[in-house]
Amino acid sequence: MTAQDREPVTGGCLCGAVRFRVTGPFLRAGNCHCVRCRKHSGAALGTQGRVLRKHFELLDGAERIRIYTPAEGAAVKAFCEICGSSLFGGTWPDGPEVSIRLGALDADPGIRPQCHTFVRDKAPWHEILDDLPQHPGRLPR
Ligand SMILES: [Zn+2]
Ligand SMILES: [Zn+2]
Fold first, then answer.
1. Is pTM, for the whole model, over 0.85?
2. Nearest ligand, CA 66
3. What is the Cα gyration radius of the chain?
4. Ligand 1 centroid to residue 106 C-alpha, Å
């Protein structure tokens, strides 16, 4: 089965106000340990995947999405204003790609995290137990 044969993967926030669908393959995915992802998720790390914007459809709840923009030009955090679920990042709502929090998905996106970024900001109580590449900061270009 190729990526193109996959059923669209749906996703949404905890309360269900925001719903979306991904109709094409994920380009890449990673675990981010930066302080922004940690605080926004309340977890050890944020896991996100990228898809082309043409493969992303917002089905419901556009008016419920709030955007927080951290200082120093860091990626935005887009979330549901009702339940607080962290949903999108990167350059939301613009740009050629959409960065999606994989925890918001309803099913298997077909991709797995490929690396760890911002490992220098890792939570001291969290231990990385896999063999994926670790980058001190953002993904090298
Ligand atoms: Zn919600
Ligand atoms: Zn991050």
1. yes
2. 1
3. 15
4. 14
